[in-house]
Amino acid sequence: MTRRISTAPIPPEQRPFNEYQQLRTSYFFRWATVEPRAYLGTILCVWAGSWVVSGPVAAWSFPPVRMPVQFFIGGAGGAAILLGLVLLRLYLGWSYIHTRLLSASVHYEETGWYDGSFWTKPPEDLAKDRLVVEYQVAPVMRRLHRTLAALGLFYALVALLYWLL
Q: Is residue 51 within 8 Å of 79, Cβ to Cβ?
């Protein structure tokens, strides 16, 4: 078995597969890859933690003693906005990797932002990257799409409840 030595000009840390492995093992981004129960638990923890910011704002707008329903709706909506920002960051990171893995040629920087170039992937690397997208990245993207859609429905429900009150 011979080892293939790469002569590609792209730095190893900018290769799409290496970027994927780095993203997959990072503390923040691996959250999207855990089993469903842990994923949902983390979402609920982030939402509950966001109440630290949204609760006082909602209490200032709607005194909890006089307007408990409005207070809860305002706090829940505010906490959901912060959760949405966290989920959007997750989605953007995974989307970036998804695009880089699927592309036949990728942009890279040799020494800085001012001297970038494009690298065309060899067929073996392209096939490997597309398999990774199909079996590893696409399920994460589908999960994030569903989560963001559910959050959008939650926003709509909060807006409807607020409007009805």
A: yes
Q: What are the sequence ranges of the domains in the chain?
A: 20-164
Q: State the Cα–Cα distance between residues 22 and 29, nearest whole angstrom.
A: 9
Q: Please indicate, yes or no, whether the overall pTM of this predicted structure exceeds 0.90.
A: no
Q: Tokens for 65, please give them.
A: 């003693």
Q: What is the pLDDT of residues 82-138, one digit of tens each?
A: 999 999 999 999 999 999 999 999 988 877 666 778 889 999 999 999 999 999 999
- Rounded CA gap, 54 and 74, in Å? 8
Which letter does DSSP use for residue 108 in this model? E
How many degrees, rounded to 5, is the angle at CA 11 between CA 7 and CA 16?
Answer: 100
**Burial per residue of 103-120, b for 16 or more beta-carbon CB atoms within 10 angstroms, e otherwise:** beebebeeeeeeeeeebe
